[in-house]
Amino acid sequence: MQEEIAVVGAGVTKFGKRFDVSYRELMAEAASEAINSMDRPITPNQIQGLYVAASIPELTVDQAHVANLAAQELGLEPEIIARVEMACSSGSTAIRNAWAAIKSGLIDTALVVGLEKMYANTQAANHGLCIVPDVTYEATNGITAYSGFALIAQEHMKLYGTTRDQLSSVSVKNHSNGAKNPKAQFFEKGEITLEEAKSARMVSDPLNLYDCSPITDGGAAVILTRGSLTTKFSEQPVWIKGSGQSVEPSLGVSNMKSLTEWTALKRAAQKAYQTSGISPSDIDVAEVHDCFTIAEIIEYEDLGFTAKGTGGKFIEDGESALSGSLPVNTSGGLKAKGHPIGATGVAQVVEITEQLQGKSGKRQVDGANIGLTHNLSGFATHHVVHILSNEEAK
Ligand code: COA
Questions:
Q1: Which of 212, 288, 296, 382 best tests ligand 1's pocket when mutated (most atoms within 8 Å of CB)?
Q2: What domains can be seen in the chain, in order of their start residue?
């Protein structure tokens, strides 16, 4: 059997408005969070791979070549170094690349840092988000993240009868979880009511303010190593059992085969389930990409947690609540923890790692042994799914 790869260090910074730190300080803070979480110390020469997930630093903080910046700030001379840009799924893509490099035998250990500092220049951050869709054919005609996902929501409501209350219930749940996570952007805000979520100001019909993830500053980092080396660093390694990635041959909404059934997500999930030998019913806890509330509802369906068209009922029945059969977005998700683009996919793996190590405090899922992360970019055109477990293969 091939040697498995494990997470041996994982940490996130406080998410929100981080005017207290510069971009490079945020980068160092994220790396320190992961390094300080380790049971035994790691030396710079043990880190042979360095991956930096960052989507728009050229626009928001006027800095390019940020992987080299990380090498400088962290004092590293890695054998493999790369900046990974895949918009909102930069973080999970960087983790998958690090996992593949270790699996190939080229390196033993890698540090993955994801970050974004969007409040440094919100106008530039919005510009960065607006050029993710196909600029030539769609963005210039009014398709933005909000209006694209609004079309998706309208179609799902029409086809499957998904309701306003069901969309808002995703937001209420994720704010409730975020209120238990001191690192979340909306931790201080606390819980919100269904009425509050339903009556918020409209952004793009039917998506209102509480259907949208916010603008966020934040960083996250993980350290991965091969199975034979885990005991050098950790007493509780978390194993990457499965990994899947898939993309549609489409940059915008107009080339999507279906707005409401995400075939690339199904392919990525299938690959992760196949490679791990784990099925949806085995998952104890999941972090999924709730950039807009409708996304989480479709993800319940296309990840195989519930049948097509029943995602709305899944949230309404409380299945994805902290006390439900499959708690989803225990961190608060993108909605309440925040969505610092490059950091998001890394932060999802941090949350699942901590859940499987029993370190999640008030939001701990009892007996969580197997977790899943799902991170997407564009109009749900690119997806990465990871399955993690606190047990090594026998
Ligand atoms: N959810 C809840 N509250 C939010 C929020 C959100 N998504 N976004 C902002 N707020 C709150 C702020 O905390 C602030 O509250 P305060 O006055 O109590 O401090 C208030 O709303 C005004 O904030 P502001 O930043 O001025 O709002 P805005 O109208 O400029 O931005 C959105 C709101 C929805 C447009 C913005 O959050 C956004 O662009 N989100 C989407 C980001 C995105 O597309 N990411 C990629 C996904 S694929």
A1: 212
A2: 5-123+214-389 (3.40.47.10)
